[in-house]
Description:
Layout: H1 13-19, E1 24-29, E2 32-45, E3 73-78, E4 82-89, E5 96-107, H2 109-115, H3 129-136, E6 152-155, E7 166-169, E8 186-189
Antiparallel strand pairs: 1-2, 1-6, 2-5, 2-8, 3-4, 4-5, 7-8
The structure holds a DNA duplex.
Amino acid sequence: xxxxxxxxxxxxxxxxxxxxxxxxxxxxxxxxxxxxxxxxxxxxxxxxxxxxxxxxxxxxxxxxxxxxxxxxxxxxxxxxxxxxxxxxxxxxxxxxxxxxxxxxxxxxxxxxxxxxxxxxxxxxxxxxxxxxxxxxxxxxxxxxxxxxxxxxxxxxxxxxxxxxxxxxxxxxxxxxxxxxxxxxxxxxxxxxxxxxxxxxxxxx
DNA sequence: ATAAAGATCATT
DNA sequence: ATGATCTTTATG
Length: 204
């Protein structure tokens, strides 16, 4: 079942980020159907989060889509090389988004391998925000696309993730955000092999 | 007009 | 640890 627009419009981006674990992310692009199960996400909030591109009401050509109502794709180019895929959440005027950091390949493995220029299944097929977009065929042309449309959508029929299977940790690559870098807004499915990086372990 | 930085990845 | 690579953004 395709996730409804209302799913994305809730007020709590952190909760939505957690709830996205186990959902299936589908794309139908260039005539190829592919999908992965979401195993790692990060929440970004326009208010009270210096790591968010839209913090302090930053409204630019790039961030404007985050201010629209939930259920749209926010895609941007990172480090001049990688396309990162985010899901816009919350209602019109409140800029929140969830970065999809890793998926487990489910549908169209052959097509994904082809897009990634790989011959055999390996972890770097979809375990990373820049990798999964390439595998699923997502790029800048999908900026602003509706997630209830024909090209990119989510479905509910992945695994059911129990509360104790959800691990919260600090977000990756946001050291510049100062104290907000410490927020536990990265969510992963416990022990899933497709996580992009290991969870920091508490010291003895 | 210019410059700096970046929600990464693969390689050394 | 480091380099690749280039858009976006802020500033003058």
